[in-house]
Amino acid sequence: MNSIVLLIILALYLGILFFIAHWAEKKGNSKWTNNPYIYSLSLAVYCTAWTYYGSIGVAANSGLNYLPIYLGPIIIIPAWMIILKKIIRISRVNKVSSIADFISLRYGNSRFLGAVVTIVCLFGILPYIALQLKSIAETFHVVTQTESSSNIFDDSTTYVAFALAIFASIYGTRYVDASEKRKGIVTAVALESVLKLVFFIIIGVYVTFFVFDGFDDIYAKASLLEHFQQKNTIGGLPQAINWFFLCILSLFAIFLLPRQFQVSVIENTRENHVNTAVWLFPLYLLLFNIFVYPIAWGGNILFDGQSVNSDTYSLLIPQFFDNKTLTVMVFLGGFSAAISMIVVSSIGLSTMVSNNLIIPYGLLGRLKHNEQSTINKKIVNIRKIGIFSLIIISYFLYRYFALDYSLFSIGLVAFVIIAQLAPSFFGALFWRRGSRTGAVSGLIVGFVICLYTLLVPYALGITSSDTSFITEGLFGIKLLKPLQLFGLDYLQPVPHALFWSLLFNFMIYIAVSVSFKGNYRERNYAEMFLDINKYITMHENAFVWKGTAYRTDIEKVLIKFLGEERTKRAMNIFNLKYNVDKNEELADARLIKFSENLLTGHIGTASAKILISSVVKEEKITLPEVLKILEESKENIIINKKLIETSNELKEISAKLQDANVSLMEKDKQKDEFLDTVTHELRTPITAIRASSEILYDDDEIPEELRKQFLQNIISESDRLNRLIDKILDLEKFETGRQKVNFATHKVLETIENAIEPLQQLINNKYIHVHVEGNGNLKADFDEDRIVQVVTNLVSNAIKFCPENNGLITLAVYDKHDFVQVEVSDNGKGIAPNDFETIFDKFYQSTNQNFKKPIGSGLGLAICKQIIEHHKGKIWATNNATGGACLSFTIPKKQQP
Amino acid sequence: MKKILIVDDEPNIVMSLEYTFKKNNFEVFIARDGQEALDILKNQFPDIIILDIMMPLVDGFETLEQIKKNEQLNHCKVIFLSAKNKESDIEKGMALGADAYLTKPFSIKKVVEQVNDLLE
């Protein structure tokens, strides 16, 4: 295929990716870009061109050896639920922007450690990026059937590398704050993950079912090839140990590779996306591996005896059958795998280089004198240039060093170097005692061993210079042979290097940490990392700091880097979160930590600490003091939680109290009114008695008839007084619940008749007709004396309200299932609807009474209501069809004991 | 002969007052509530009115307000005679323009004295 055509296809493809990234960036919060599937698929950046092409190469040459690279992650992925979530939490609250930040923060925010981690990552990842570029370049030449040109400016792959470098540097540095999410890149990477898988499966199906006749056919033909048996056995115990170490290696890689840290931690938008990744990502790896073997051995069968690069079988096979579409498709899949790795890695690396190397070592001092906008521009530019140069450097690395190595071997070297971060990284998560000195020395020693046992031999191999160093050992000492260090001769170079480097790394990390205690700051961060769940909401509380600092000084620094507005907003958030007065002059530990966090995303943890410490005066604290303060702060957090709970409870209680108070006040008012009325009602008969008695006492000439009348007045008013007192006491008994009700079963109609009997005289006097109707056998449980009292009261009222002539009172008893309903209605002028409820109030006397005040006390209906309610019934008033009043009550037939 | 209007809804109290004032040479008019009193006052212009407060329909306070509106009753003295003995009620009564406020139970002699005082 013509180079130009392929370049155009590539340009189109890159254009689409640009577009997708751009679109996703705009739609930053839509569910299309913000879902667990995008997250899980973006993790598949793990599968690079190395997987895409290299696995086939390994499978073709040495059988099953490609598998451990996938087994390691699959073994550890279930533990993500705990470990990865913890890492995500720690990184989120501390605004961590790279693995270098993560590690250096844990060990006391150490600038030096951050720099070491960054350098280790550079050593590991640059060749790895070079490997991706190599795969693009080589496959480009395979597809176009051209030779790689020795002049890099004639080689079209150079321009591809440039295009990539530009793409990555534009899209990787959208924000100054490196801990911000890059939705565009992540979505593009997820899309590429889908494409590379789909294209790989297509070629797999093509090879298995179209070129050959299924899996059986491939196996049958492959088993006839030379070395088939030997290539497809595990190979005894030494080989099993190799396997074991390779699994360990990839297990570490899935956590430690800067690009994995980038997509799984930094770009994580929601913790529970991990739940989906836990099953989807292993499934993805599984699908990717189904056709590795058929393609590899299919290639071996087709190209048996020819010297072709087995890494490129997936391209050579369709090309062999002259299937151009498929060839380009496979190429695009590999291209996707390569560029997603390149882009994500270079973003991660450049953040580390800027935040952990360039800014803290040098640039920080100069930045301080710039304006905020200039600072931001400078930081972004550093990262842009960083990404660009990383890719370009990698390209040259590929051109001058990595040409001769297979994809697989370069990938593994990168893994081993990155694995050096394991002790300090996992120590950060699980071990309180791990110290900065331990981490630094372990890391450096491990890295040096890597150099000695892996990088140097490989470099020597590349330049094919004198190899006596490898065969004889350093200074001719056999024990120091780099590939058989200390006589360990049955491991392959990679597991061998991994074993020795990690062994020393771990041991030194532990030994130094145990022997030399870290300072208080390290211990402080250790607590924060290990107990992240305790500190998640108020994590600034967990930061121990003593000294003097002024808020204005800190704010000045923040304004420099964040601008006036953001600083103001952040301070408001802080004040609200910790309930701090905004006029407070002194800054406390929480504000220091809060401010460091604000700066961290821009300039990294180490620089943030340096900046803040430059404006505050810190006092040294001893380790025991830190532990004590932490203990207290833990308690404080618990107490704080309790306080908030208690305060909420108190709020509730106080609301209830207020309600109670209102109702009490209402009751109080009612009671006042009641007392007023009672005294008035009591004073009235007393007044009459006193006036009559006074006349009788003073006036001897009073006529006999009048004298008797006055005496009669005294008698009747005394009776009235007594009745009133009785009723008040009655009512009071009901209201306080001291009134006993004696239930027994009675015929309702009989009780009604008993009630009317004593009123008969009164009824006759007013010529009222009383009509009683209902089933005479209807029974209910009630206190007869009380119900008689109710009926008497209602009938007395009816008598009072009946017209002078033709008065009619109707008493009716109805059967209402579980209840008996009694109605007393008259043909008077009825009750104003407004008064239907108020007439049952104490001392209510209708404002409509247009006649002489009735004999009533104003308590009758209130007492009736109490009695009926004590029977669990209801009493209410309406007007009947003729306009007269109708008072009804119900009582249940059966009283619940 | 001086004219007195007694307004109260308690017949037994009215009876005592009526007897006493008749004996003291008053012409006595009786009303059982505010409305009845106002009806009487359309034709009669007593020298003094004894007014209860808590009565059905139109209470004593409202009755006094109506009385004050009637210019023909300008000369007429008004005494509240009520079981309401709270400071606030007394103040309210006096503010409405009553000439005296006596509380129940009362001494008839005191009432007569008060009436005579006011009429001098």
From TrEMBL, chain A:
The chain crosses the membrane at residues 6-24, 36-53, 65-84, 112-131, 156-173, 185-212, 240-257, 278-297, 331-364, 385-401, 407-431, 438-460, 497-516. Keywords: ATP-binding, Membrane, Nucleotide-binding, Phosphoprotein, Transmembrane, Transmembrane helix. The keyword GTP-binding does not apply. GO terms for molecular function: ATP binding. Residues 677-895 form the Histidine kinase domain. CDD domains: HisKA, SLC5sbd. It catalyses: ATP + protein L-histidine = ADP + protein N-phospho-L-histidine. It is an enzyme of class 2 (transferase). It is a multi-pass membrane protein. It comes from the Bacteria. Its EC number is 2.7.13.3. It is found in: Membrane. Belongs to the sodium:solute symporter (SSF) (TC 2.A.21) family. This is histidine kinase. It comes from Flavobacterium buctense.
TrEMBL record, chain B:
The keyword Phosphoprotein applies. The modification 4-aspartylphosphate is found at D52. Keywords: Phosphoprotein. The keyword Phosphoprotein applies. Residues 3-119 form the Response regulatory domain. It holds the Pfam family Response_reg. InterPro entries: Bact_response_regulator, CheY-like_superfamily, Sig_transdc_resp-reg_receiver. PANTHER family: RESPONSE REGULATORY DOMAIN-CONTAINING PROTEIN, STRESS RESPONSE REGULATOR PROTEIN 1. This is Response regulator. It comes from Flavobacterium buctense.
